[in-house]
Specification:
0% strand, 2 helices, 107 residues, single chain, mainly alpha
């Protein structure tokens, strides 16, 4: 024979089931928030590294540009063979570096 439950017992069982369900939902939401925070931290860390790299690249490009300009100014004054060879070497290196950067940016 089936067991009989009073109305308060049924309400109590329903409330317990609702609390258990709410706890499961809260636990799931907490895990989702923790995962999303981890992803956000990883993205921020990556973006920070990219920004730092870009700053270094810009600074290096500016140094090369300044040095090439300085060498160009020097060539119009009195230059010796040593400076001409050095200047040519730097310009060749710069052109090679620029070609390499362009080919890498196309990929």
């Amino acid at each position: 024979m089936a067991r009989r439950y009073s109305a308060s017992q049924i309400r109590n069982k329903i409330r317990q089931a609702q609390q258990k369900q709410q706890q499961a939902i809260n636990k799931y939401n907490q895990q989702v928030r923790r995962y999303n925070q981890g992803v956000k931290n990883a993205v921020n860390k990556y973006n920070q590294a990219v920004r730092a790299h870009n700053v270094r690249v810009r600074a290096n490009r500016q140094r090369v540009k300044n040095e090439l300009a300085r060498l160009s100014r020097q060539s119009s004054i009195s230059t010796t063979t040593r400076y001409v060879v050095y200047r040519t070497s730097v310009e060749t290196l710069h052109q090679s570096y620029t070609r390499l950067e362009k080919s890498m940016s196309r990929e």
